């Protein structure tokens, strides 16, 4: 079963166009300054069969694609992740972006990860490094690279590599929790968390 910490039907700040986003639960890498927040802690999560998750994606017929984030997508059962992405690609025309803390070269040598890679259009790899956080669009830090694994978006490579207009989306759920999507800077997270905790508001960064 795939472990999902959170999913969002429509998001405009994690890749081109409007996208459905899945934040997978759990990451054991413990990179210093990680901004994935609660996705890495032992918190509640939902489990899905690949078919269930693919059906959820299929319901969103106005989106441009899906984005996988975390946590760490490549610490999910990789055979199930492959099945999920295969179903998405078979049944839709959606593009697939995927964030990972692993390096592409590392994944490309791992037998179980290679089938997953074949269904990803753009892989954004590498750990978050606070001292290389210069506000890059769709990336947390300069070391994280876009790998255009298919033709899709390849002609936009220069623009993607140089864009710096970082945006976030903020929502308040019915329980009073603040949900933040996008790639906020660590400074922004610290300041916002301090202010909101004074007001007893829980914040969920993803
Ligand atoms: S930066 Fe990415 S790989 Fe590193 S701990 Fe956070 S979620 Fe895991």
List the helices and strands and how they pair.
Layout: E1 2-11, E2 19-24, E3 46-48, H1 50-58, E4 65-69, H2 78-91, E5 95-99, H3 104-108, H4 114-117, E6 122-125, E7 145-148, H5 157-162, E8 168-172, E9 178-182, H6 186-198, E10 203-205
Parallel strand pairs: 2-4, 4-5, 5-6, 9-10
Antiparallel strand pairs: 1-2, 1-3, 6-7, 8-9
Helix pairs in contact: 1-2
Bound molecules: iron/sulfur cluster.
Residues 27, 29-31, 34, 36, 40, 70-72, 101, 127-128 line the site of iron/sulfur cluster (SF4).
Question: What keyword list fits this structure?
Answer:
206 residues; alpha/beta; TIM Barrel; seven-stranded mixed sheet; three-stranded mixed sheet; 6 helices; 10 strands; globular; binds iron/sulfur cluster
In a nutshell, what does this entry contain?
This protein has about 210 residues and is of the alpha/beta class. It has one domain: Aldolase class I (TIM Barrel). It is about 25% helix and about 25% strand.
Can you walk me through this structure?
It is built from six helices and ten strands, in the order E-E-E-H-E-H-E-H-H-E-E-H-E-E-H-E. It has helices spanning 50-58, 78-91, 104-108, 114-117, 157-162, 186-198; strands at 2-11, 19-24, 46-48, 65-69, 95-99, 122-125, 145-148, 168-172, 178-182, 203-205. By secondary structure, it is an alpha/beta fold. The strands form two sheets. A seven-stranded mixed sheet has the order 3-1-2-4-5-6-7. The model has no long low-confidence stretch (mean pLDDT 91). It has one domain (2-168): TIM Barrel. Iron/sulfur cluster binds at residues 27, 29-31, 34, 36, 40, 70-72, 101, 127-128.
């Amino acid at each position: 079963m795939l472990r999902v910490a959170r999913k969002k039907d429509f998001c405009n700040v994690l890749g081109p166009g409007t996208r459905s986003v899945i934040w997978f639960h759990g990451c054991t890498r413990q990179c210093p300054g990680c901004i994935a927040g609660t996705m890495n802690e032992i918190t509640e999560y939902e489990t899905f069969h690949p078919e269930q998750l693919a059906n959820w994606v299929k319901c969103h017929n106005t989106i441009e694609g899906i984005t996988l984030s975390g946590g760490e997508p490549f610490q999910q059962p990789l055979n199930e992740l492959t099945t999920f992405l295969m179903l998405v690609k078979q049944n839709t025309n959606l593009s697939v972006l995927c964030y990972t803390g692993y390096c592409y070269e590392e994944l490309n040598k791992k037998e179980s990860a290679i089938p997953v890679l074949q269904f990803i259009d753009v892989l954004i790899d590498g750990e978050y490094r606070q001292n290389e956080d210069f506000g890059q669009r769709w990336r947390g830090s300069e070391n994280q690279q876009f790998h255009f694994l298919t033709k899709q978006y390849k002609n936009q490579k220069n623009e993607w590599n140089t864009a710096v207009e970082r945006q976030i989306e903020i929502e308040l759920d019915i329980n009073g929790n603040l949900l933040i999507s996008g790639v906020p800077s660590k400074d922004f997270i610290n300041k916002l968390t301090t202010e909101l905790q004074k007001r007893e508001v829980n914040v969920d960064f993803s």
